[in-house]
């Protein structure tokens, strides 16, 4: 250990009562837990963030990078973090926002008005607050790095990150409300921030941390919300014209309505159209997006002998079981599956007389690291081919929703035409909101259309595919709202780095590590979206993939620490070979494999380049002169990678592998000569 490291270790021991290794693990776990909690909670109250969770993620990466760069420039404790967290929680609870879904280029199903502060005001506040909040735990993590050898510190950082993911996943599994997230945050602040002087500790740490818990407890008690792994679910029961009705909202948006089947058919006749377009009454029915159960109740009322009800959100299913007046989920003819609809189609060997996609509009993204929505893989050409493969002779496939744009109706109908080989039935029930039902028989003779669909209008975009599953984007462009927002984020980040970390020349020797961070975030995004296609967009798959990425990184660190690994040029060659393999292996081949074999093949293809990339990083990081600055540069690169992730809207997720390869080549060219020689 160098003299500087020994001095840092001595300072750390005098400053904190907890030994460096457990302190590093706890701080790293807290940092990742807090990041996940902020993404999840802000999105439930600021509905813009249900669609742009990447926004909070970018703020988190900026804050974490700044926290590392701040190490060595001050000895003051980051007491600002719990204070900013309290202010953020207060602002969000005082000024919640519902989404404006009229903005061109930000495409959702229906249209609702906005309440609360405008996006241009609230989103910068959220971004800046997320950065400041995460900068505190990151600074605490960074202060531990000089006290340990490079790779040992990185190893404990990864162990802590895995612990943070496990803790947040456990609370999600238990459907714990945010007050428990607040309790975890308060406890971590209390342990990690030094308790002296006592007056500052009580006033700047304990008081705001407890205030956050109190605010979140108030939200938990007054909102009457159920917290699923995806949403804050609220509901209201009332009578309308003597009919019992349950309105269900998620993240502040009206989402579903549980009413008796016969009443729903009276009020909105389009729910019966899938059954009228068939040539025979369907006996075996699959409903994707079963929700609170109204579509299931309608299928039973139409004479279904068995219904497989697929719903991704367990809390919506629970509400349907307890509150729906028809009690459809108690019917012995109904089997419930809590999973992703596309994943169910890829796994089941059953066939059906009717497959129905019943308003599958998720209102949220898969994760904070992608533009993928929970239902994105349901509307691709490959998904509709999978549905067709599960139809009995004479069977039909149908979907309905409020599509808002006429070109969306045409695009889905054209996708169905390409998948089924003939034109479907298209019933536009209401032009105000483009409420439509689209139905296709397994053959043209298996459907009964009221009138022939004339075909897609000129200018209708091509059907979406699994590589670019962005149904709501009309053109192969990044919408202006994203471009402007990301540009402002990068400008603000440049200024913040200069103010907090000093001259940019501090990071100049670590330009290659910066590019490694950019490329790795793209690689991680490709892995998340790839596994979502292969195994489902459920929160469990998402958590397992993120944990798997960290395990692969930890394995790379352990191999580098314990064994003599090939030199950097060779490892870069292995990395590029892994990227080439990922490019060459088609998703269609992986989906054709049995589930166990698919898992082995997917893990091999996805994690080989991740492992190689982190051997490269570990070898390079171990030789750096300044651990915290080099690590901070890498984290800031990850933030830029989060911005470049939106390139997938244009080039698809497979194209991100090419961008990552170019970045890795750039990182290799920027390697210091001594590192190449070593």
From TrEMBL:
InterPro entries: SAM-dependent_MTases_sf (IPR029063)
GO MF: methyltransferase activity
GO biological process, one term: polyamine biosynthetic process
Pfam families the UniProt entry points to: Spermine_synth
Coiled coil stretches, renumbered: none
Annotated TM spans: 24-43, 49-72, 79-99, 119-141, 153-173, 179-195, 202-227, 481-501, 513-533, 539-557, 569-585, 597-617, 629-649, 655-672
UniProt keywords, alphabetically: Membrane, Methyltransferase, Polyamine biosynthesis, Transferase, Transmembrane, Transmembrane helix
Protein name: Methyltransferase domain-containing protein
Originating organism: Nonomuraea pusilla
């Amino acid at each position: 250990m160098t003299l500087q490291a020994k001095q840092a270790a001595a300072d750390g021991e005098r400053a904190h009562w907890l030994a460096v290794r457990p302190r590093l693990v706890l701080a790293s776990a807290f940092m990742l837990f807090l990041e996940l909690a902020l993404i999840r909670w802000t999105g439930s109250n600021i509905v813009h963030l249900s669609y742009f969770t990447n926004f909070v993620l970018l703020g988190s990466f900026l804050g974490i990078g700044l926290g590392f760069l701040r190490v060595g420039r001050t000895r003051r404790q980051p007491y600002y973090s719990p204070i900013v967290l309290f202010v953020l929680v207060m602002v969000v609870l005082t000024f919640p926002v519902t989404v404006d879904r009229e903005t061109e280029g930000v495409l959702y199903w229906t249209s609702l008005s906005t309440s609360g502060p405008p996006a241009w005001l609230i989103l910068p506040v959220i971004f800046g607050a997320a950065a400041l909040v995460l900068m505190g735990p990151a600074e605490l993590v960074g202060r531990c790095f000089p006290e340990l050898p490079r790779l040992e510190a990185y190893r404990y950082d990864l162990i802590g990150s895995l612990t943070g993911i496990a803790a947040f996943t456990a609370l999600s599994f238990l459907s714990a409300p945010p007050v428990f997230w607040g309790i975890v945050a308060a406890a971590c602040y209390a342990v990690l921030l030094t308790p002296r002087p006592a007056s500052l500790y009580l006033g700047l740490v304990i008081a705001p941390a407890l205030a956050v818990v109190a605010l979140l407890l108030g939200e938990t008690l007054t909102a009457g919300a159920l917290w699923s792994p995806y949403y804050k679910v609220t509901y209201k029961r009332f009578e309308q014209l003597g009919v019992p009705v349950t309105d269900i909202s998620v993240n502040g948006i009206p989402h579903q309505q549980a009413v008796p089947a016969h009443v729903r058919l009276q009020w909105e006749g389009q729910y019966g159209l899938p059954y009228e377009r068939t040539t025979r009454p369907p006996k075996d029915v699959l409903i994707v997006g079963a929700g609170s159960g109204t579509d299931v109740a309608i299928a039973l009322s139409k004479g279904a002998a068995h219904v497989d009800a697929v719903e991704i959100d367990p809390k919506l299913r629970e509400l349907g079981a307890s509150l729906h007046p028809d009690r459809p989920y108690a019917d012995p003819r109904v089997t419930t599956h809590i999973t992703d609809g596309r994943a169910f189609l890829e796994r089941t060997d059953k066939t059906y007389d009717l497959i129905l996609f019943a308003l599958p509009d998720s209102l949220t993204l898969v994760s904070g690291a992608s533009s993928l929505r929970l239902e994105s893989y349901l509307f691709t050409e490959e998904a509709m081919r999978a549905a067709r493969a599960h139809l009995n002779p004479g069977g039909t496939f149908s979907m309905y929703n409020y599509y808002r744009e006429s070109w969306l109706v045409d695009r889905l109908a054209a996708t169905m035409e390409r998948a089924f080989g003939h034109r479907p039935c298209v019933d536009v029930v209401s032009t105000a909101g483009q409420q439509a039902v689209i139905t296709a028989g397994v053959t043209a003779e298996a459907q009964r259309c009221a009138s022939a669909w004339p075909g897609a209008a000129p200018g209708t975009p091509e059907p979406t595919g699994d590589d670019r599953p962005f149904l709501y984007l009309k053109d192969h462009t990044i919408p202006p709202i994203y471009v402007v927002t990301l540009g402002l984020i990068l400008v603000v980040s440049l200024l913040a780095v200069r103010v907090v970390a000093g001259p940019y020349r501090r990071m100049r020797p670590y330009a290659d590590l910066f590019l490694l961070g950019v490329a790795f975030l793209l690689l991680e995004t490709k892995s998340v979206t790839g596994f979502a296609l292969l195994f489902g967009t459920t929160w469990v798959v998402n958590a397992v993939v993120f944990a798997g990425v960290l395990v692969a990184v930890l394995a790379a660190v352990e191999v580098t620490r314990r064994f003599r690994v090939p030199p950097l040029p060779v490892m870069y060659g292995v990395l590029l070979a892994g990227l080439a393999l990922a490019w060459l292996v088609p998703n269609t081949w992986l989906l054709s494999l049995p589930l166990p074999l698919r898992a082995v093949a997917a893990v091999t293809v996805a994690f080989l380049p991740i492992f190689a990339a982190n051997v490269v990083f570990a070898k390079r990081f171990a030789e750096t002169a300044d651990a915290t600055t080099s690590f901070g540069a890498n984290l800031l690169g990850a933030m830029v990678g989060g911005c470049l992730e939106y390139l997938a809207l244009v080039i698809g997720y497979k194209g991100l592998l090419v961008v990552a390869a170019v970045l890795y080549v750039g990182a290799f060219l920027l390697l210091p000569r001594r590192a190449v020689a070593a």
